[in-house]
Write a structure and sequence with these properties.
Structural class: alpha/beta
CATH class of the largest domain: Alpha Beta
Number of helices: 14
Order of helices and strands: HEHEHEHEHHHHHHHHEHEHE
Distance between the termini: 44 Å
Strand content: 15-25%
Number of strands: 7
Largest sheet: 7 strands, mixed
CATH architecture of the largest domain: 3-Layer(aba) Sandwich
CATH topology of the largest domain: Rossmann fold
């Protein structure tokens, strides 16, 4: 296990890929390299692995860990660009793709990254610190209505209106620049019962992080890109960590497996559509043993599908 990141659902995820000795695989969220290392342990000398991550810290860790292995290519990229990454490497289709959509342990535990309400740090939250605005900059510019929507939609926060209003009022006095400042504002905006029930800022931090990094904006498109990069019999395995990610992933995999959409009363099929995939299983969650060693895995859910034809119209 990498010290950089506690890998979630390790064996279940790599088992779902059904790794072939000389196959080609892509780990689209390399992190500390946990899933990648397990895939490599099952590959032969002619196997190949492409590892992507949008976080330059992760890329540095991955290159240090796998740089001496000729089977591995590590690329600084987000997973939605998988097709262009494969093209640049001269790779057509792959035999398996894995994506872990969660925030890495390193990102949460490094105070400088500003992801966690547990440390007092600059409010950054960027997956790639070299690009885009910070969370502090976003909160300095956003209007109350948009912020309310983000907190409700991405954080499923029941107190989204009062929290958004409190943030806007607080920034009128001074910019909201640190994680502790944001956490205290949230605490002040929710009822006492909510404060007693646990860390009330958790959903707000999640929502701001998702919005800032556009994590859901193109997720459906990215899942389709990853699936389209598979060869027939190739498998896609995706780990999600909250209901919104899982809803998108489940919808995509359901669509991959959907065939004829003609009216059921029609005597024959006229649409010509056929399923492109089959589910490897509906979903898998961590067992008690894993949760005892990694509490952050509690919300993880794994879904996997196997491609059975290239197009919905193929015979």
């Amino acid at each position: 296990m990498s010290e950089y990141h506690l890998t979630v659902l390790l064996q279940q995820t790599v088992d779902a890929l059904n790794v072939r000795e000389n196959g080609i695989y892509a780990d689209c969220t390399g992190g500390g390299g946990g899933h990648s290392a397990e895939i490599l342990s099952r590959l032969g000398e002619r196997g190949r692995l492409v590892v992507l991550d949008r976080d330059p810290d992760a890329v540095a860790v991955l290159r240090a860990r796998f740089g001496g292995d000729p089977r591995v290519a590590v690329v600084h990229s987000e997973f939605g660009a998988l097709r262009s990454v494969l093209d640049s490497l001269g790779i057509g289709l792959v035999d398996g793709v894995v994506a872990d959509l969660g925030v890495s342990s390193h990102q949460l535990d490094d105070p400088a990254r500003g992801f966690s309400y547990r440390y007092d740090a600059p409010l950054d939250m960027r997956m790639d610190p070299g690009s885009g605005i910070t969370a502090a900059q976003m909160l300095a510019e956003i209007d109350e209505r948009t912020l309310t929507r983000i907190l409700f939609q991405y954080g499923e926060e029941r107190y989204s209106k009062s929290i958004a209003r409190a943030i806007i009022r607080a920034r009128e006095k001074k910019p909201v620049e640190t994680t502790f400042e944001l956490s205290e504002i949230v605490k002040s905006a929710v009822p006492a019962a909510a404060r007693r029930a646990g860390q009330p800022a958790r959903k707000t931090f999640q929502a701001i992080r998702i919005a800032l990094n556009h994590e859901l904006d193109t997720l459906e498109e990215s899942v389709n890109v990853m699936f389209d990069c598979l060869a027939v019999s190739g498998r896609l395995a995706i780990i999600t960590f909250h209901s919104l990610e899982d809803k998108v992933t489940k919808h995509c995999m359901t669509e991959f497996c959907r065939g004829c959409d003609c009216d059921p009363s029609a005597p024959i099929c006229t649409c010509g559509k056929k399923p492109r995939a089959r589910l490897v299983f509906r979903s898998v969650v961590p067992d008690e043993a894993e949760l005892e060693t990694n509490n952050r895995a509690r919300s993880a859910r794994l879904r996997a599908a196997e491609k059975i034809r290239m197009s919905v119209y193929d015979d």
